[in-house]
Structure to design on (275 residues):
């Protein structure tokens, strides 16, 4: 990946159309700041997963998978706190209108004219199809590849571990999964990586900023290291569409599709339909 070196500063991600009104130093993040934000939200995750979880699990009556899940929610909530801090430091306010504009929570914009156009949401169809194809054909091979190259990497905790008859009738899992999804697909991961970081990557990574965004997002999953390569590939469609149309809703929606499957699985377990 190479830095943008042309004389024209990149498009200001907060602008309504395409004017390059801000200097590069003000409109984009430095590599140091990008990696700093990444480290602050990423490094706590493996500590929670591989240090804190094994220590506290024996002292609770909860299934280890639930303990892991609760800690991951705490880690994603920390992302939300960091994202708010970055926004306040940058904007001087936490008003919804300012954050919405800054993080591309708007209608998709034509990349040539800058005009809002709801019809561009049709790009969700190939983006979701791409993710589905990757998951169906490459998820196993990519995870196996990483496992074979780095056999010392610990196995991640999987949602499949909740597929147990002990959770039949455990309706409290439904609000838990909804809270988890809120931070996973909107307030935490998406807000920070797609909303805060993606609009500020062009100054360092140029036209490949969407690829850099996917790599940063995937590599944050240090708590599930075997899936980092898979997450990189799966994240590309959401980051490309979000960047091209300057609309974070693409990434949020594409990413949230997996949440619907998790919710369906949990519901099937709670009702007993999974057995």
């Amino acid at each position: 990946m190479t830095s943008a070196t042309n004389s024209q500063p990149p498009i200001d991600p907060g602008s309504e159309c395409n004017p390059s009104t801000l200097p590069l130093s003000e409109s984009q993040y430095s590599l140091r700041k990008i990696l700093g934000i990444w480290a602050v939200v990423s490094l706590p995750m493996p500590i929670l997963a591989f240090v804190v979880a094994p220590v506290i699990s024996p002292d609770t009556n909860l299934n280890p998978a639930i303990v892991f899940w609760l800690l991951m929610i705490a880690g994603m909530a920390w992302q939300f706190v960091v994202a708010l801090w970055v926004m306040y430091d940058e904007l001087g306010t936490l008003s919804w209108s300012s954050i919405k504009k800054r993080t591309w929570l708007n209608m998709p914009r034509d990349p040539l004219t800058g005009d809002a156009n709801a019809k561009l949401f049709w790009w969700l169809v190939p983006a979701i199809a791409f993710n589905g194809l990757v998951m169906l054909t490459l998820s196993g091979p990519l995870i196996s590849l990483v496992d074979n190259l780095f056999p010392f990497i610990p196995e991640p905790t999987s949602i499949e571990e909740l597929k147990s008859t002990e959770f039949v009738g455990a309706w409290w899992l439904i609000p838990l999964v909804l809270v988890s999804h809120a931070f996973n697909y909107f307030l935490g991961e998406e807000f920070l990586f797609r909303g805060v970081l993606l609009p500020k990557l062009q100054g360092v990574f140029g036209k490949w900023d969407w690829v850099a965004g996917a790599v940063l997002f995937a590599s944050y999953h240090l708590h599930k290291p075997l899936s980092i390569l898979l997450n990189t590939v799966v994240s590309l469609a959401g980051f490309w569409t979000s960047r091209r149309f300057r609309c974070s809703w693409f990434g949020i929606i594409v990413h949230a599709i997996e949440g619907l499957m998790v919710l369906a699985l949990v519901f099937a377990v709670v009702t007993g339909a999974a057995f």
In short: Residues 24-271 form one domain. The radius of gyration is 20 Å. The first helix runs from residue 24 to 27. The CA atoms of residues 12 and 27 lie 6 Å apart.
